[in-house]
Amino acid sequence: MKIVGECKQCGECCRTNDQWLDNTDEMAEFAAARGWKVRQRGKLIQAEAIDVCPHLTKDNKCGIYENRPRYCAGYPHNIDLENCKKLGLDPNKLLPGCCGYRFVDE
Question: How far does Cα 34 stand from its chain's mean position?
């Protein structure tokens, strides 16, 4: 699979209720700092957001863009497709509905 499309600056990736993150200390800390509930599933963690990222501005821009976490900087290119496949997850269902990106077969 490969990713196609472009960011539509909808901001939904910063306010969505569910995020699938790589199960790393950095991601666990990222989710915990936002007060998200975290469940582990294989090599991924499911983080249930309970609020909007505090750095999202009213015009859907990142208020700390130059210093944003690595996860944010790489999203959605950093979604682990191998783990999605192993867990039977459709990676497109991990993207917000208005997202301009989609995963397609090569």
Answer: 14
Does any domain span residue 60? no
User: Does 58 map to a domain?
Assistant: no
How much is the pLDDT for 38? 73
In order of 9, 14, 38, the CA distances from 57 in angstroms are: 11, 10, 25
Q: Which amino acid, 33?
A: A
**How many angstroms separate the CA atoms of 89 and 46, rounded?**
12
- Asked whether residue 56 is assigned to any structural domain, the reply reads no
User: How many structural domains comprise the chain?
Assistant: 1
CA atoms within 13 A on the CB side of 91: 23
What distance in Å separates the CA atoms of residue 64 and residue 30, rounded to the nearest whole number? 14
The pTM is what? 0.66
- Structural domain boundaries enclosing 12: 2-51+66-104
Give the tens place of pLDDT for each residue, 55-89.
Answer: 899 999 999 999 888 878 888 888 888 878 877 88
